[in-house]
Design brief:
Elements lengths: L5 E8 L3 E8 L6 E4 L2 H12 L3 E4 L2 E5 L2 H10 L2 H14 L6 H5 L19
Length: about 120
Amino acid sequence: MVMCNQYYFYVVDEDFGPLFIKFSSYFPYTARICINGHEYAKRQLAIEGIEFEALDNGILSCADPVRLQQILDELDETKIEALVYKWLDRLPDPFVREDHEAGYNYRISILPPCVRIVVR
């Protein structure tokens, strides 16, 4: 018998760019959303019309580096939490209404971001 342990959803969010969501198929039905801060920054620069030169996983140059730093500084748990709940609302929920009323809900924990600084 073959059993699926994880379900992956690959999406492109209008504010965060590409990301993936991994759901466990067994109790307690954990979910993990993996975002890339570089992709978030690129998306925000594009939305604001600020020119930049993108790398595969970073930004080589930016017409407004001060604004780029502000964008990254503004990426906080509030924005990430809103993203999580937006996608959890759109995807299948293993809990029925009665489960939620009994207190079975997702809790969010955010891992500290990986910081990479390159000075040339």
